[in-house]
Write a structure and sequence with these properties.
This protein has 348 residues and is an alpha/beta fold. The protein is 44% helix and 16% strand. Strands 1, 2, 3, 4, 5, 6 and 7 form a 7-stranded mixed β-sheet that branches. The termini are far apart. The protein binds nicotinamide-adenine-dinucleotide.
Length: 348
């Protein structure tokens, strides 16, 4: 495998690996290991070019540092991306080569699943590296808890913004019905919420709609769907100068990473009276699950984990209150809390 190291300011280590035999082309970015080894899933996506993959891995790795810090985990932030179409280009040899790439970093980065990497792939990767977590055969699938954390976060946002303690009768527009979005739909449906759903795969949308008696809308129409909550659970960059004015919901709360196309758009949401649950706070349930294997090996405690995930609602409530009090956006408050934890760890 050919390895290239790139120096990027603000990042501890950025590595590109290419293996001509298996076709692997991947980046691993380690943002910050102040709190512990960098953890973060591996995304496989048909990036237009290497630069697009690099810019995605950098943003994703950075938000993992904040996600782990705000979740009070003794872990740092990192991420991997593989350039390729997961439906066409993925092979066992490619997953094994990725495992070798991760192993070569000797534990400074711990990988897991993400968009385009399914549970079976995690098993294949684990043939070649110890530094992988969330293995399904060890009960490690993080997506049920990722979805449960988002559900707890939506409940907290509804309590704060709409002063309601029940989801019954409220409508939620869910964008993206994959591993997390689908499970979130189940929790919302069971709590009595009405669902409006969109997925770029029409078959997936039809299946989920039938299961939960949901209304299907076209992917572009989900922003303006007449809903109380908009839950982005597909890809990032969905809150833009164009989509924000179209939003009908007064709450945005979903699992997708990097939802704000530009950081300043957080304030635009405030001006429009839209409560935003910062993505890296609300989506931390999956990280909490995979971290359990790393932080407490051999000592899995469902109650401790469940308590942590449900704590996402409390953390968000604190963030919402502070943001209201100071008239600032919720991401600024979340960043401040995460930064304080990092600074304290550095000073200790
Ligand atoms: P997934 O690949 O299983 O599902 C994504 C779904 O979104 C797919 O069904 C896809 O067809 C759909 N989609 C993509 N673009 C779309 C668009 N423009 N409009 C409508 N639908 C679209 O991914 P996942 O694991 O469910 O993750 C979803 C999001 O949550 C990602 O942003 C991921 O980074 C984030 N996240 C995932 C986890 C986890 O544990 N998997 C944890 C935290 C955050």
């Amino acid at each position: 495998m050919q390895i290239e190291r790139t120096r990027i300011e603000g990042y501890e280590e950025v590595v590109y690996g290419e293996d001509p035999e298996s076709g692997l082309k991947a980046f691993i970015a380690i943002h910050d290991t102040t709190l512990g080894p960098a953890i973060g899933g591996c995304r496989m996506w048909p990036y237009a070019d290497r630069d697009a993959a690099l810019s995605d891995v950098l943003r994703l790795a950075r938000s993992m540092t904040y996600k782990a810090a705000i979740a009070r985990l003794p872990l740092g932030g990192g991420k991997a991306v593989i350039i390729g179409d997961p439906h066409k280009d993925k092979t066992e040899a490619l997953m094994e080569a990725f495992g070798d790439f991760v192993q070569g970093l000797e534990g400074r980065y711990i990988t897991a699943e993400e968009v385009g990497i399914w549970p079976d792939d995690v098993e294949t990767i684990s043939r070649r590296t110890r530094y992988v977590t969330g293995r399904p055969r060890r009960g490690g699938d993080p997506t049920p808890l990722a979805a449960w954390g988002v559900y707890c976060g939506i409940r907290a946002a509804v309590r704060h913004k709409l002063e309601l303690s029940s989801m019954a009768g409220l409508s939620v527009a869910v964008q993206g019905l994959g591993h997390v979005g689908h499970k979130l739909c189940r929790y919302l449906h069971d709590a009595g919420a009405e669902l409006i759903v969109a997925d770029k795969d029409p078959e997936v949308a039809a299946k989920v709609a039938a299961q939960f008696r949901a209304e299907i809308v076209a992917p572009d129409a989900i922003y303006s769907a007449d809903a109380d909550v908009f839950a982005p659970c597909a890809m990032g960059d969905v809150l833009t100068d164009e989509t924000i004015p179209a939003l009908s919901a007064s709450i945005v709360a979903g699992s997708a990473n990097n939802q704000l196309a530009r950081r300043e758009l957080g304030m635009e949401l405030v001006k429009r009276g839209i409560l935003y649950a910062p993505d890296y706070v609300i989506s931390a349930g999956g990280l909490m699950k995979v971290a359990e294997e790393v932080v407490y090996p051999g000592d899995f405690d469902q109650e401790r984990l469940q308590g942590r995930v449900e704590g996402i609602g409390l953390t968000l409530t604190r963030i919402f209150r502070e943001a209201d009090r100071e008239g600032i956006d919720t991401t600024t408050v979340a960043d401040r809390i995460a930064m304080d934890r990092l600074e304290m760890a550095k000073a200790a």
